[in-house]
Design goal:
- This protein is α+β, with helices and mostly antiparallel strands.
- Helices cover 46% and strands 26% of the residues.
- The protein has two helices and five strands.
- The chain has helices spanning 5-59, 64-71; strands at 74-76, 79-84, 96-102, 109-117, 123-132.
- It has a five-stranded antiparallel sheet, covered by helices on one side.
- Helix 1 (5-59) packs across helix 2 (64-71).
- The model has no long low-confidence stretch (mean pLDDT 89).
Length: 136
């Protein structure tokens, strides 16, 4: 009689190969999820910084100097720029930025585009802030 041991061994080897392939696919998906998670966290933190900047600008009725006194940064050529480190904490030499550019408003309504960019210049989040111009 012929032994069925080689056939069972082949079946077990194929089963191990199948599970090894499935495990490799799962590990790749796990590694990719970490990258996606870090990117999402980065965009979330950028959004918070942009929103804080917009709210501060609105509370000062569009006065860049007053808003800069609260949040820091620099104003050059009418553009207010704040720098942040990798954790989106204010840093003088940070490589992430929040930029505020005045928009075309009217006599009673002021606007500005507030945007955040990553270290490579990729825009992560932006919004248009609007405020009622102060009398005077």
């Amino acid at each position: 009689m012929n032994s069925k041991a080689p056939l069972a061994l082949i079946g077990q080897v194929l089963m191990v190969l199948f599970f090894a392939l499935a495990a490799a696919i799962c590990l790749q998906a796990f590694a990719k999820s970490e990258v996606i998670s870090r990117g999402s966290e980065n965009r979330d933190r950028a959004a918070i910084c942009v929103q804080n900047t917009a709210e501060t600008l609105k509370s000062t009725h569009g006065d860049f100097e007053a808003a800069k006194a609260i949040l820091g940064g620099r104003i050059e050529n009418g553009v207010w720029t704040q720098r942040f480190d990798e954790a989106w904490e204010p840093a003088e030499n940070g490589d992430r930025t929040v930029t505020v550019r005045r928009g075309e408003g009217s006599e009673t309504l002021g606007t500005a585009k507030v945007s955040a960019a990553d270290r490579d210049g990729t825009e992560l989040f932006s919004l248009i802030a609007a405020w009622q111009e102060a009398d005077g």
